[in-house]
Design a protein that fits this description.
Number of strands: 8
Helix content: 25-40%
Strand content: 25-35%
Shape: globular
Number of domains: 1
Strand order of the largest sheet: 1-2-3-4-5-6-8-7
Order of helices and strands: EEHHEEEHEHEE
Oligomer: single chain
Largest sheet: 8 strands, mixed
CATH architecture: 3-Layer(aba) Sandwich
Length: 186
């Protein structure tokens, strides 16, 4: 238990940290890399603008809990906050275009997970690879406890989270809270 959350005794993983690449179900070669991409924690303007472009193209129907924001100025501010904080980020790239982004945002002794895959890339396996890479990246950097919330009717997302080792810790509202304890890297 960390704070008020219960975490599973059985660890999830281990997961391979990025960089990694794979061919998705639509025969696209997808690369998953940490963000920022270099050891000094610097990202180029092109990488940031590609993320902004993905989020401004995001279908409003797929937004949950007010994220990602819909206006470009709000997207930029939100990205600066989550990318500049104490957390971990990975981005799925289809060439120079961002297909998806996943983040672990520090929340005391645990990290909150959020994952976004652009609509035209959904259903192709990118979300599974992106989540596993993020959890591997977090575990390689000492993250032990991860939590998330998901709308209970989002069966695809709930199934993905369960598949990688999350368990429901709170089901008292219209959202489920799910938690995972990460396996230490081998």
């Amino acid at each position: 238990m960390t704070g008020d959350r219960m975490y599973p005794e059985e660890p999830a993983g281990p997961f391979d940290p990025p960089p990694l690449s794979f061919v998705d179900r639509d025969d696209r070669t997808i690369e998953i890399r940490p963000y920022p991409p270099d050891a000094e924690g610097e990202a180029g303007e092109a990488e940031f603008e590609a993320l902004v472009e993905m989020y401004t193209a995001f279908d409003p129907a797929d937004r949950a809990q007010g994220i990602p924001p819909s206006r470009e100025a709000d997207v930029r501010s939100w990205l600066e906050t989550i990318l500049g904080g104490e957390g971990y980020n990975v981005v799925a790239w289809d060439g120079d275009a961002v297909a998806g982004h996943a983040t672990l945002v520090e929340d005391g002794e645990a990290y909150e997970l959020a994952i976004f895959v652009l609509q035209k890339y959904q259903g192709s396996g990118i979300g599974t690879h992106l989540m596993k890479a993020l959890l591997g990246h977090g575990a390689a950097n000492g993250v032990e406890h991860v939590w998330l919330t998901v709308e209970r009717w989002n069966r695809a997302a709930v199934g993905l989270y369960k598949k990688v080792g999350f368990e429901t810790s709170d089901a008292e509202s219209f959202e489920l809270e799910m938690t995972a304890q990460l396996a230490k890297p081998e």
